Protein: Major facilitator superfamily (MFS) profile domain-containing protein
Organism: Zasmidium cellare ATCC 36951
Amino acid sequence: MAQHVGSLEKSSSDLHVEIFDHEKHKDIETVAEQTPPDFDQDEVKRILRKIDLRLLPVLTALYLMSFLDRSNIGNANVAGLSQDLGLSSKQYNLCLTIFFFPYSLFEVPSNIVLKWLRPTVWLPIIVLCWGTVMTLMGIVQGYGGLLAARFFLGVAEAGLFPAASYILTTWYCRHEMQTRLAIFYCAATMAGAFSGPLAFGIEKMDGIAGLEGWRWIFILEGLLTVLLALILPFVLHDHPSQARFLTPTERTSHLHRLAIDYSNGAKDQTTFKWKYLLQALTDWKIHLSVLVFWGNTITGYGFIFSLPTAIKDLGYSQANAQLLTIPVYGVALVFVLITAFFADRTKRRAPFIVYPYMVCAVGFVAMMALPKDKWPGARYGMLFVIASGLYPPLCGVIAWNANNLAGSWKRAIGVALQITIGNLGGAVGSNIYLKLEAPHYWTGYAVSLAVLVLAIAAGFALRFGLERVNKKREAMTEEEIRAMYTPEQLQDMGDRSPLYRYTL
């Protein structure tokens, strides 16, 4: 098997060299995006369908369980957690908050370990760990135990989303990624709407084995995660070269497409070097993408926090306010899928990030301008505008960053780094909607609008910066480039290779 995999990888590299040697005088990006004659489009679609059916349900299930396990503490609290453990409001909030510190801190190290090991080893380990922590959370006896459990839950869950984002880059070409990212993100998020009814049903087990109902929420959902971890090695595949559900011909064809699409003019990086970490930490593209990311996280966390309250302030009851959030999120997720489809179809990222943010900004301006004592329907409608412009850029900015990072070590680190710093914006967003300002929320709306303007400006700057680099590289022929650099130098350069073209 190892020999067969090696031969496939070799054939992919050989094909890449052959194609570029015969196309020296053509634009490199055009050559990379062309489908060679032996890449039959019907075959490509058939291969992608096979991969979608095997990979996306697994990633969706993992993301769903991580969503349930990090958020079910709210359901448990409604069922009596704080009362039974004697938690004050401050202690309960600290148990919520502490999760996010290790969750952000361990994303980059986790993706490095993912590359050192492999997905079928590392992902089951972290899923088993967080499932075990979740199960044991059902037997905590006080504030200290709950605080420690939430901390270690953050440690274990930290690696999932950056790992899933990176794994997609190893299975799909650059302009096939955003649609898949949107599919598993939307599917898991919508499925999360069932977390409340599920917890409500489990809570009925109150008293069984002498345990309170809220404990069974943690125990049963934790055991379900452990079960998923145990079957994960049998349903997850490390790489297309090892995909047993593809025929040898299909594997070879797909590997060729990936090699061409992500090529920087040399074989991929095979071993970790500290320079790859340094490259990611000092990459201007990643840091600009973080500013674009903050347009979603800072604004989004504040929006999530304030949405039920904002609807309630329109004159609806608390129960109806919760129900009226569902259509807002439902419409937003539809736009996430539509935007991702056209972004991949047109092979562009910036327009499908910047323009939705502009729509979102218009929504916030309208919310600030509309009178608070009338037109509740118009203000509720503006919430749809805000959400429809706010959520589509999330998948886009992650895909954009991943598309513009080469080789695989830097891409794994860079994806995790972007998500790490980007998610820290949530700490800001959670504190900008002040109760004393209700129903106007001047601070929340104003900060959100300012962050959106910053994200839009960063998006334009990133797009024009990448275009400028591409034009400089297009001024050189491949023959000139290969005369200047050795294959080893091109390999170490990653996306800084003059043969690499950035996605705009």
